[in-house]
Amino acid sequence: MRGDQGLQQNAVNAARGMGVRKFGSGEKVKPASIYSMFLRIFDHARTEWKSLAIALASIILISLLEFVVPQLTKYTIDTVIPGKLFGKLALIGAGVLGAAIALGILRYLSTSVMASIGQKVLYKLRNDLYRHLQRLDVAYYDRNRTGDLMSRVTNDVSILQQLISSSMMQLFTDVFTFTAIAVYMLAIDWKLTVLLLATFPFMIWTTRLFGKRIRASFRKVQESLADVSDHLQTTLTGIRLVKSFTAEDFEAERFSERTQRNMDANVQVVRLRAMYEPIIDFINFAGLAIVLVFGAWLVMKDAMTVGTVVAFIAYLRLLQNPVRHFSRILNTIQQAAAAYERVMEVLNTKAIITDKPNAIELPPANGRILFRDVSFSYSQAAHSEVLRGFNLELKPGEVTALVGSSGSGKTTIAHLVTRFYDVQDGSVTVDGRDVRDVTLHSLREQIGIVSQDIVLFNGTIEENIRYGHQDATDEEVRAAAEAANAAEFIQVFPEGYRTQIGERGVRLSGGQKQRISIARAILKNPKIIILDEATASLDTESEQLIQAALAKLLKGRTCLVIAHRLSTIQQADHIYVLENGQIEEHGTHDELLERRGRYRELYELQFPAATDSASI
């Protein structure tokens, strides 16, 4: 790892080591309420108003049909049986079966419609989350783990989908049914109904008490699951390193520790539910006892018929079903609330590096880049500045090279030109315009980067080259590959440009990957090129091929070269030697050798034979 990147990573690791979970600018994000969760879900779902109307109509019809069977029961006991109305039995049976068929059809309709709405809301929310992640600045990704962010986009959003597709439908149905039945029961016998409803405040209090604890427990479940996801992402992408160090058992043990935490968190949720549901059931049985005792007393006093009591018990069960359902739905709601909080932590994060309200488009650049009194630090710790009062000029159409010890600030300079980070003091300008005053898109579309850390996507060679210019023709892609000296090895593959290269280009050699990244930069055709140790890890043959490709790439462009291998920069127009965030010396290759300063020391370390022969 390069030195100044190491300083950056140390600051990040220090924050993580202290248990700090930062999002955005580091401000604490207020936990999202269940109300705000439902409000946002509705905001996404309201465009599906026709489907919502169908679901709502189904809910109303389901609730009305729920009244039919108890009424038929009451009529049978109070009228048909005493009057021996045998002719009515077939109609009663048909009525019960008809109600059952209608309920089945309506429940299928409502469930399928809500599932469709849920998937569409999930689609919109996940896309919103991904787009927001794309807008966040590089510093955000320094502070947060990739696996955790992946878990938020996949697992957490999927949990919300479960709430929308099934639980919300059940919740709305139960609320409507509960209200309708409670009103009807009050009309039949308000005293008995009031006695029955007296048990519900205890249910509400119990639900609120356990709800907070279950939600907190589910938060731990989601966080521990994110740890598992992060560990998987890290170890599977680095499987060659794991195997080369025979660390399979070590990683398996670390994975086991994370899954153990996830298991313990899930067990805690189950225990809370195991305590909550029996309490709710006891309160429900208390309500049944009230109806049986008081109802029987009224029948014996001839104040109520047996059929009415039976119907009342049936309605009681319908009244209690929403409570039973809610005790189960509570599990989903609290799990969704915990997931929603994690999603909102990302969505509420504001990017630090953004366009100013009055930002302008950067005109086609000439390529003059000027650092003026720049100071920059990756952390707020004292004496942690990477650059202090730094000044540098990159002239249009010339190659400027930066060399120096690890941690001297070379890569940081490249990050500031692309505005991956903003300076704390001073300014960075392109053609006299501060990079903070122009739009990020217009700035970065005129800069090409070829790095030692090559990023290739799982796809074809052609797709990876075309990433530099999505609308490029096949001819332009092939021309870029030829300019990068990549066409020869590409044509050797049976499928040529349509060859699948695997994750991170695993099927290619280091030199082949680098030539594809150069072809990608050539296709982009930027005015400003940044080469960040582009040949540092290559063999001599690959380096020579890439140097030839780079010569074509750099022609007529402003180029910033960051290098450890001094053989790659001997033809540079200007070479600057950095130490501790300051320029120690500068000049051409020959001028710096003659001065016998820091550059000469670095050169002698890399080419002792050349310097010995030169001194003879």
UniProtKB/TrEMBL annotation:
Transmembrane segments: 49-69, 89-109, 171-188, 194-211, 279-297
Protein name (Swiss-Prot/TrEMBL): ABC transporter ATP-binding protein/permease
Keyword tRNA-binding: no
Species per Swiss-Prot/TrEMBL record: Paenibacillus soyae
Any one GO CC term of the record: plasma membrane
Entry-linked InterPro entries: AAA+_ATPase (IPR003593), ABC1_TM_dom (IPR011527), ABC1_TM_sf (IPR036640), ABC_transporter-like_ATP-bd (IPR003439), ABC_transporter-like_CS (IPR017871), P-loop_NTPase (IPR027417), Type_1_exporter (IPR039421)
One Pfam family in the UniProt entry: ABC_membrane
SUPFAM superfamilies named in the record: ABC transporter transmembrane region, P-loop containing nucleoside triphosphate hydrolases
Keyword terms of this UniProt record: ATP-binding, Cell membrane, Membrane, Nucleotide-binding, Transmembrane, Transmembrane helix, Transport
GO molecular function per UniProt: ABC-type oligopeptide transporter activity; ATP binding; ATP hydrolysis activity
Primary localisation category: membrane
Lineage, opening ranks: Bacteria, Bacillati, Bacillota, Bacilli, Bacillales
ABC transmembrane type-1 domain residues: 53-335
SMART domains to which the protein is assigned, alphabetical: AAA
PANTHER family according to UniProt: ATP-BINDING CASSETTE SUB-FAMILY B MEMBER 10, MITOCHONDRIAL, ATP-DEPENDENT PERMEASE MDL1, MITOCHONDRIAL
Family, per entry: Belongs to the ABC transporter superfamily.
Residue ranges of every copy of the ABC transporter domain listed in the record: 369-605
Keyword Nucleotide-binding (UniProt): yes
Coiled-coil region list: none
Source organism superkingdom: Bacteria
Membrane topology according to the record: Multi-pass membrane protein
Compartmental location: Cell membrane
